[in-house]
Amino acid sequence: MDIRERLGRNIRRLRQDKGWSQEELAHESGLHRTYISDLERVARNPTITVVDRLALTFGVPVGQLLD
Amino acid sequence: MDIRERLGRNIRRLRQDKGWSQEELAHESGLHRTYISDLERVARNPTITVVDRLALTFGVPVGQLLD
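The joint structure predicted for all components is written out below.
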């Protein structure tokens, strides 16, 4: 599975585990809601600083989003 | 430590563990030598597909490059 697919699947899983909507994850992370939607639909190739921000928001190591 | 610093430090450590020059890592990964040098000097903010290619080259999970 492509790393962008792994990221999209992991964001959705971690977000739903927290019971957050995409809007709530956008608010918590400071990223735009449409960008969150794009990431979950594997429509983006984000930089590592974006992924680091999401990992900090979820309180998980970056590897849990990308491996 | 910023994620880009962690990446630069981990690339250098993994490369030296293999006894590779930046030129050899560039050849193995298909990335340009100057780009490898920039990553190690924390002068770039790469996308996750670049990091995935490096992880595959080193044979390690992406988390070992970013956490």
